[in-house]
Amino acid sequence: MHWKLVIDAADPHRQAAFWAAALDYTVEDHSTLIANLLAGGAVTPDQITEVDGRHAWLTLAAVRHPEDAHDPTSDTGLGRRILFQRVPEPKQGKNRLHLDLHPGPDARAATVTRLTALGAVTLREVTEPGGSWTVMQDPEGNEFCVH
Questions:
Q1: What is the pTM of this model?
Q2: Under-70 pLDDT residues of the chain
């Protein structure tokens, strides 16, 4: 079974770029699939946009682990994958689900610095008997932790 985590977003392409850089994932390139669908009349130009000089879905963007299998025609990941979908309403309240990044205790500070440069914000440092971590927000305010 392959799966994907779907995250609502105001700007799915910005979120995909952030999380691809944060996780060392690959942004999926759906341009060949989109070109074929456009040529066949299955999609219309108002359903697409251009990102980094190539066709992309207007309301969707995805990232995948670079070592996982993917469909060569659509570049869709068949393993660890995150799909960002545009929604009209802003984020409201605390996440019910979040990602934990584990770069290792010696790499946490450098990872937090790198993610901040990518657009993340540090919310707080947590130290408890079970461990310590940094709580952050991605560019759209979704919380995640760096352990």
A1: 0.91
A2: 1
